[in-house]
Specification:
single chain, about 120 residues, Trna Endonuclease, Chain: A, domain 1, 2 helices, about 30% helix, about 35% strand
Length: about 120
């Protein structure tokens, strides 16, 4: 797959995740927040809580699910990017959580696995 197709696929997955979360009452704050520490796919609001959403798309789950690919190293990068966002936007006292949305195609539709508060031990 060429790079442009891969980027389109990622953008499509993020849009699908955003629609799914919006249908469940969350509202979009920002897409694709970039900083020196990394990228946050979606930043959403769930009531008073900010939700940093990592979207993972897998063509299949033969080598593990998209959710399983968010390992400790990736979590550390997401946390650092979220801290940057909170400081940069002066929302450092804002309650927040990290969710993962894993998307896998299943025939003409998709399986969407939404893991709330995914970084809890």
């Amino acid at each position: 797959m060429d790079k442009d197709a891969h980027l389109r696929q990622g953008a499509d997955a993020e849009a699908l995740a955003c629609r799914h979360l919006s249908a469940h009452g969350l509202s979009l704050v920002q897409r694709n927040y970039h900083c020196a520490r990394g990228e946050l796919d979606l930043i959403m609001r769930d009531g008073v809580e900010l939700v940093f959403v990592e979207v993972r798309f897998r063509k299949h789950d033969h080598f593990g699910s998209g959710a399983e690919s968010v390992d400790r190293r990736k979590q550390t990068k997401l946390i650092a990017a979220a801290l940057h966002y909170l400081q940069h936007t002066r929302q450092h006292k804002q309650p927040c959580r990290f969710d993962v949305v894993a998307i896998t195609p299943r025939g003409p539709s998709h399986t969407i696995d939404w893991i709330r508060d995914a970084f809890q031990n």
